[in-house]
Write a structure and sequence with these properties.
Elements (H helix, E strand, L loop, with lengths): L1 H16 L6 H15 L3 E3 L4 E7 L2 E7 L2 E4 L11
Helix pairs in contact: 1-2
Length: 81
Amino acid sequence: MKNGANELMRIQNVLEEDRLNVGKGFEEVLISDLNKLLKDYFDFNSLPSIKLIKNKGGYCVNINVDITRVRALNYVLEEDK
C-alpha cells in the first residue's frame, strides 16, 4: 500500500502545483501515475484515460479505465492494526 500512497501523493502534488497550466505533458504524467497506482488494484489491458475540466475554483477530473479483474488485497492497513 505504501507504493499506492506514494502515487496518490504524487498525483495530488501535480494537481496542486499545476492548477493554471494543464497541458499535454501534465496529462501524460498523470496517466503514467494512475497506471502505476491502479495496477495494484486491477488488471486492465489499456492505459487509463482522463478528462480534465476547469471549473470555478479548480478542476473536475474524470478517470476511465476498463478493468478485466479486481485484484485481491493482501495487506493490512496501518489503521486496522
